[in-house]
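To whoever is covering the structure queue this week,

Two jobs came back overnight. Logging them here so there's a record in the thread.

Job A:
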Amino acid sequence: MGTITAIYASLLALLYIWLATRVIGYRRANKISLGDKGDPEMLQRMRAHSNCAEYAPIGLILLLLLELQGAPAWLVNVSGLSLFAGRLIHGIGLQPHPMNFRMRVFGMALTLTQIGTTALILLGSALF
């Protein structure tokens, strides 16, 4: 159980590592030990990394619950792909300086759609 979720959790973990290495590399190159020191690019990199850390866990928990409840594989995959794509697109949107606002918004919309839709499916399944 949880095989499909394991795929998306692994992909999100790799994305998280990529975002973390972007922060670490920039910190080293610019000698920024803590915070962002008013550097807008540092702040963007930090927020892309933090945003992944904030939204991916709830999305993965809901994805696993959906899979464990016996939802069809296609539905679990659509949910997982939406979460992963949303986090990836958002991270890429925050990568360049200045940021790509459209990608950032689209990535966030995909992520919130995954979280909201999966939550409603689970709630409906539990209540009815």
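Job B:
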Amino acid sequence: MLVAKLTLKDRLLAQRIYLILGALFIASLVVSNLIFQKFFSFDFFGIYTFELSVGILPYPITFLITDIISEVYGKRKANQVVTAGIFASVFSMGIIYVSSAVPATEWSPVSDALFNKVFGATVVAVFASMMAYLLAQYIDISIFHFWKRLTKGKHLWLRNNFSTFLSQFVDTFTVLVLLCSFGKIEWHLFAGLLLSGFLFKVLVAAADTPFLYAAVYVLRRRFGLKIGEEIDLEKEETK
């Protein structure tokens, strides 16, 4: 790995950008777990009708962010964000569990029944999401860096799409298997939801490639990074 040499000012800016990306990643992950029970459908130019959980809308953002971090900050920093996301998910699950246990007042706009209807399956959703998330994100990061080494830092579109396509299939398959096994989704819906979820994620992965290129271009230009060069925050901090 080629490590970029940064000034103190640039190093502090790089740390702030990393924290912002990490915050966006965690927010997208936690929100996707909270809103997953609402489903919607839309017609894709008459070619295919998607049936999806709204939880899928912020989830692809997490893969875009880990690809940006992987490209600019390296594999270790990407894995650290993934691990932080696990703790954030568990913490949010604990908050929801406690909130469910506290009885609502008679005048509360949201009753216990309504609260449990909306958030009652969140614990199962978070568990299923975390299992799928662990497999998918670590697979995504590993494949991304495999292609990065193989292409010597070139062809960013190749590693972005190849890593995301496989990891998104693993994610969609795993979370649906777990939700169906726990009785949250009927098994007869499995195949349709798997196809819709995977195709949607493939389309989003292809569509986010320009955004990945734009983000990497801006960061490389700002910090003077060459192709294949990464910012090692931990190494720089020890100087």
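Note for Job B: Residues 45 and 203 are 13 Å apart (CA to CA).

Please reply-all if you pick these up so we don't duplicate work.
Q.
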